[in-house]
Write a structure and sequence with these properties.
The protein is α/β, with parallel strands linked by helices and 368 residues long. The protein has helices at 2-24, 71-79, 91-94, 104-119, 146-160, 179-195, 224-227, 262-276, 292-306, 340-359, and strands spanning 43-48, 84-89, 123-128, 133-134, 137-138, 166-169, 202-205, 238-243, 281-285, 312-320. The chain has an eight-stranded parallel barrel with strand order 1-2-3-6-7-8-9-10. A two-stranded antiparallel ribbon has the order 4-5. Helix 5 (146-160) packs parallel to helix 6, helix 8 (262-276) runs parallel beside helix 9 and helix 9 (292-306) packs parallel to helix 10. It holds the Pfam family Cellulase. This is Endoglucanase. One of its GO terms (molecular function) is cellulase activity.
Length: 368
């Protein structure tokens, strides 16, 4: 009897431990039953460009007006230690008329990359690179009702909800509308995704190109620092995506960086906002040319993020892809050789991974 009681108590304790571990380690990027791995931030990677190219040719011709990177390019960046890829594409190419079914050929091209990335135990952000527009018309207007945006994300969510390695990047750099309109569009898309029973991580940008440095500014309307506080996710599994460049106007169009400290200076206030409001941030685009000041500025920026991994869940460098040519921010290898900026990123990733080992993931929770 005593032996049976001991066995029963042992079994009960084991069950409690299992329940605690399961509830405390839910998958940040999705909790569906098909998930084979538990992912914990930080996630470091790169944008894989091509699918968003040539906006004057919509939908355009594949491999003439636009392209997608190859699986070999994914393998190269995985070999460098990268664990996340942002995959930009144009909404008009995946859904050529609003409310239509998703184009099967275009979806197959995206799926080939998504599946390959997932098979490398990496994560992929699917990102309509549309600036909150469709054929040039703003979402939430009579030409592109918010219902069309909901329909698009419902179809994407249904297609990818069984893959926990897929992250939903709602939109690239909304601009030219009220912050309230963008907030309402984002909330509608989030509601549609969750109504489709998809629990994947969602990345939510702000208005005004979603700049970190301008998060509290009002030149684009009500500051994102105010409106994004009213984002609603029924399962609270989202992060805020911002972009930040280091040239004089934060546009990412110059080879110059303002100063060695400009990257940190442009992230500090947004980072404080994340901490104050218990939010998580993701740096979806950042980049710089290869020169001494930019090297120092980028090293300082990456070190700052590593020091604040309690709120930053990662980043994706802008950019890589087969069609960039001599673009100064590209880290696409050339003639089998790494670009200099790749070394900057490898050093930062190595330091972050060392912090994970020393501090137990630097205090970052496994779920949001």
């Amino acid at each position: 009897m005593i032996r049976s009681l001991r066995l029963w108590i042992l079994a009960a304790i084991t069950l409690v431990i299992l329940l605690i571990n399961t509830s405390g380690c839910s998958d940040l990027v999705g909790t569906n039953e098909q998930s084979k791995h538990i992912f914990t931030p930080p996630y470091f990677g790169v944008n894989l460009s091509g699918g968003e190219f040539n906006t004057k040719a919509l939908p355009g011709k594949f491999n003439e007006d636009y392209t997608f990177p190859s699986t070999a390019e994914v393998d190269y960046f995985v070999s460098k230690g990268m664990t996340i890829f942002r995959l930009p594409f144009r909404w008009e190419r995946l859904q050529q008329e609003i409310y239509d079914d998703l184009d099967p050929l275009q979806l197959e091209r995206i799926d080939q990359l998504v599946d390959h990335i997932a098979n490398q135990d990496a994560l992929v952000i699917i990102n309509p690179h549309n600036f909150s527009r469709y054929y040039g018309n703003v979402i939430g207007t009579p030409e592109v009702p918010v219902e069309a945006f909901k329909d698009f994300w419902t179809k994407l969510a249904n297609h990818y909800k069984s893959n926990s390695r897929v992250i939903f990047g709602l939109m690239n750099e909304p601009f030219g509308m009220s912050s309230e309109l963008w907030r309402d569009n984002a909330n509608a898309a989030i509601a549609a995704i969750r109504a489709a029973d998809a629990d994947n991580l969602i990345l939510v940008p702000g208005n005004g190109y979603s700049g970190a440095a301008s998060w509290h500014s009002d030149w684009y309307g009500t500051p994102n620092a105010t409106t994004i506080l009213t984002i609603v996710d029924p399962i609270d599994n989202y992060a805020i995506e911002v972009h930040q460049y280091l040239d004089s106007d934060s546009s990412g169009t110059s080879q110059d960086c303002v100063s060695a400290n400009i990257g940190v200076e442009r992230l500090i206030k947004f980072t404080g906002w994340l901490k104050e409001h218990n939010k998580k941030g993701f740096l979806g685009e950042f980049g710089a040319a290869n020169n001494d000041i930019c090297h120092q500025a980028m090293s300082n920026l990456l070190a700052y993020i590593n020091d604040n991994l309690d709120v930053w869940i990662g980043w994706t460098w802008w950019s890589a892809g087969p069609w960039w040519g001599s673009y100064p921010y590209s880290i696409q290898p050339s003639e089998g050789k790494d670009k200099p900026q790749m070394k900057w990123l490898e050093k930062a990733m190595s330091k972050a991974n060392s912090q994970d080992v020393e501090t137990g993931n630097n205090g970052v929770p496994n779920d949001l």
